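Q: What would this complex look like in 3D?
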Amino acid sequence: MAKLLGRSTYRMENHPTILSSSAVGGGMERDGPLGSCFDYTDHSGMFGEDSWEKAENKMQQLALKQALHKASLQQEDLNILFAGDLLNQCTGSSYALRQFMVPFLGLYGACSTMSESLLMASVFVDSGLADRAGAITSSHFCSAERQYRFPLEYGSQRPQTAQWTATAAGAVLVGRGELHESGRRIEVVHACAGVIEDPGITDANNMGAAMAPAAACLLKRYFIESGTQPKNYDRIFTGDLGQVGSDLLYQLLERSHIKIDDRHDDCGLLLYDRQQQDVHAGGSGCGCSAAVLAGHILPSMMMGKYRNVILAATGALLSPTMVQQGDTIPGISHLVHLRLVDGKEGAH
Amino acid sequence: MAKLLGRSTYRMENHPTILSSSAVGGGMERDGPLGSCFDYTDHSGMFGEDSWEKAENKMQQLALKQALHKASLQQEDLNILFAGDLLNQCTGSSYALRQFMVPFLGLYGACSTMSESLLMASVFVDSGLADRAGAITSSHFCSAERQYRFPLEYGSQRPQTAQWTATAAGAVLVGRGELHESGRRIEVVHACAGVIEDPGITDANNMGAAMAPAAACLLKRYFIESGTQPKNYDRIFTGDLGQVGSDLLYQLLERSHIKIDDRHDDCGLLLYDRQQQDVHAGGSGCGCSAAVLAGHILPSMMMGKYRNVILAATGALLSPTMVQQGDTIPGISHLVHLRLVDGKEGAH
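A: Here is my prediction, written as structure tokens for the whole assembly.
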């Protein structure tokens, strides 16, 4: 049974373990620095479907099927799926996952969904409510752009603060796992649920600034509640703050004398090559942190590159309707702490 | 620590208890058979705001504040809030709850959100991850109608299968509660997470038929996994199947020789007087089951009218975009089993 630390930090007690992960992406993602990390890519971003929304469904299905395959599991072996996405009514998840006959608890955390779903999956496994649980999310540049900003055909200019919604999906399976054949496994050690922070941003092309305060408050509180410091982690990944949001995060944390810039990476800055690819302030979207986690962070940990990692995915709770009514864009962030465990250290 | 029964039925072991509940509604709801059950109503449905979306935010805020007040709690006393709603990007919840500095895990279960959020709140309290947790949701006829169907000004005719989205919000607080001064309390005993079922309905004015199969499958599996039968419950409430969906539910359950019509009520049929109010097949919306639970079911239990109750809220995962692309409307349902405990039976 996980233990509550402080207000909303959860310390796992039963070693919820990453069983497998899978990343799916489009052409831009394949051409980026992490292109080789994807299990499946489609240059057209259509994945054989006739609409962007259906393509996004297909990405989630491919990611989940591949994650099940890697863990040698069938859909019957999963007790529960946690998923959400950016599409209205979260159809990227619900329409994708209706073909799997697995109990489903839908989430909405905007681009923080990967850490929210992994938090939930870990808590359910740790508390004995699931033997195996899945955490899945996705985003698609084309379906997001037309829903949140302008029709693509309009060809609107994007300011330098704008981010590029990743065409990507990631799935992670969690269980009371056995050691990998390499004698290693990755456990979820802590998770922390964030508070909504609204810094008053009204520009849908400046998501980084809308999300940075939520990430800063979350990290600050997490370090206190878990009794840890940045130096206890090899790497701290934020979800998709991009360059603008990352710079702002450092400034906000500095006020509390917390320094993370020597060990911080942002998934939105890892996914694309900003010199070669026209993504402006970096990548974003639920699929961004999901694919970077599934395709890059977890495999890097298994290779021994990092032992202790924080993933703090960040979400802008952006609503075109509310922004049209003159309202601002609140942000949220949730985090998980992942640890590489060698066979000899295992508590199993 | 809650115990897993079967695939996704959770038996609580630490007596998560309803601390308080509050219901807020509009004019139609005040004029209905449960009008006196609301803590707060506004005939105009505007709640002092200048847009329907902001009015929906206000309803959630009023419901949460009132629930906190009834339990003599401050927002600082809550570890976590679970909430979601029907508005795009779930802004009914996120924009409402940003003014409360409480950790927030956003959900999307369409009209099943009340039982999904109460499931989560109960699991977190039972597993020791929260001392006190909140479950909140809302819907608003005007914001829903223009988002899902037609602009209100268009004055479109509604077929007899159509349901009326409730202008209502409900908040329920869960904790490791002490006995009420009456010597009674209501505990969450079981919860069960449902599977997405898609019966192939394409008509956004026939939500009951889209949701009934999900409710039937959930109830059938729950009775098996929990080892209980309909006769173990005084009342089984479904969320918002309306008349069309309720009739279909009986037919579907009869195939498995399960009979619930002698102890079944549908929140969508309780909220309005279909003889006097022009709601066609009944009420719907996240706020429907939320307000009926908070304002009617829980108070009726505390008065001793029912001892064992199932609430199976039902959600149509309807997306106008997907329906425009020729796709169908999947449904989902989650349930909680509530029990009235007298002082003498208490395990505390």
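A: To summarize the key features: Residues 207-226 of chain B form the longest helix (20 residues). The domain at 1-343 of chain B is CATH 3.40.47.40 (Peroxisomal Thiolase; Chain A, domain 1).
Q: Very helpful, thank you.
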